[in-house]
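Long-time lurker. I teach an intro course on protein structure, and each term I like to show students one example going from raw sequence to a predicted 3D structure in token notation. This year I'd like something fresh instead of my usual example. Would anyone be willing to generate the tokens for the chain below so I can use it in lecture? Attribution to the forum is fine with me.
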Amino acid sequence: MLALAEQIGIRLRDQDLAAGRLTLTVRYADRSSSTRTRSLPEPTAHSPVLAATALGALASLGLQRARVRAYTLSADQLRPRDEAHQQLQFDPADERARAAEAACDRARHRFGEDAVRPATLANPSAPHPARRHAGRQGEQHLRRRSPARDGQLPRPDGAMSDTSR
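-- Reply from a regular --
Happy to contribute to a lecture. Here you go:
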């Protein structure tokens, strides 16, 4: 759900739009579906607000052990972001979060979509983008640089030798 809200937030900010409402559709294994719509307190493109609203809609479904096939999250009641009113905030944390989000958007535009993402969406098992294109030699190099663990030391051919005899 966080990934869907983040994608919608990015798309809204890229197009200088703000959403006034989110609609969550859940499709089940038996091909039935449920839909929940939530109005936002104020039109926004701020991903944490979108994620919180989407999670609230999901929680209202009360799913327990449901066999879900797909989630669809859509934003509507769109308007230009500069026309959307925003309540004055005296919370410096909110201002910092919006500034960080703007910096992340600039980094995505400069370095690509996968340059920045929320830590909760990071996949620790996925290869690092710099290592993804390293090829076979890069993989062997990474293995050789790993510290000796469990009594195994790297051999020159890249294989591991057991030292616990």
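Some talking points for your students: Strands lie at 17-28, 33-44, 68-76, 79-80, 152-154, 160-162. The helical segments are 2-14, 47-60, 92-111, 129-132, 135-145.
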